[in-house]
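Troubleshooting: if your tokenizer reports a length mismatch, compare your output against this known-good record of 382 residues.
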Amino acid sequence: MKPLLSVVVPIYNVERYIEKCLHSIMNQTYENVQIVLIDDGSIDLSGEICDRFAMIDSRIEVIHQANYGSTAARKRGIEASKGEYIIWVDSDDWIEPDYFEKMVKAAVKNKADLIVADLYFDIGEDSTVITNKLPCGIYSTQNILEKILYYGSFFEYGIQPHGVTKLFKADLLRDVHKGLDLRIGIGDDAAVVYSYIFRSRNIVVTDICCYHYVQHADSLTKRKKKNEVQGIEILISYLKNIFKNHDILMQHLAIYQNYLLVLRDLSYWDNKMLLYPYGGIEPQERIVIYGAGGMGQSLHSYCRGHNIMVVSWVDRNYTYYQSDGLPVISFDEFQDRNEEWDYIFIANTNEQIAMGIKKQLTTEGIEEKKIRWFSPQFLNGE
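Known-good structure output:
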């Protein structure tokens, strides 16, 4: 008998995406699954769609509840799970047909507590593979603890925190959730994944890549939450308690906190100067933003709120962002406009990618001194 796999899908107002997600789960080559859908107080047609799918597939169970947030929804799903293993799928994403087959096979073959996979980061028609920096292999927890969160460059994870690219053992995951602070809304995946690793013995990092993490204007991760700084502090406080006996992990946690703050609330450093993480600017200076993802949107919002003139906002996927109503243009159009500006800010938190963009910009004739990324002071935690 193949082991039962419980699939937990938290759902909130995703009527535009949920059908594709559910079809991709139902059509998996691995069929011994329990599909637990947690309708977390949706006010659109999501709940009705879930009920309709449950009528045509007996493996689907639907739980309707008031809106408590993704952390509580996943916990409810875990409580309802009957499988030996648990896997998460977000309701606006989709998976390739052999995803479950590959993940369960790797777990059984290696008697693993945790299977770690890669994912596709989908923006419109563009799809990028997001990998873990730890090489593929079988690891004991103690051998990799100091590399799981931060791998040495800003910001690269040793093991990506995405919960959706992990296969968990059900009993261990329940233990993690017993102690989880349900107030955690920012970084809830990281809270679970890194806590779980501490309880694991045998971890397998693979190159399985079958999960499509779809970016769109309605994405939960893109929505600004109230009290962003407080939300980050709750997460960091929780992880500090997990990491407390590991000095290097505590140092990495400080860098991780800066990473979250720069994505979520750039005004955190306003007592030092405007845009301190980028080395600071004067109020009258004019900037160009290169990148319209999470960092770019955070940067653009900050500039609007501080009356900083954004001359142009550029991204290679400009047509996708334009379809979401953002005033993003191509690099060619930016050059054709021939506008006056002082600095071009690279809105990407990954150092390797940012340096690649910088090289591209200098090749296009832009002076290096006019290109800004995070300052050495910020990267060193000063």
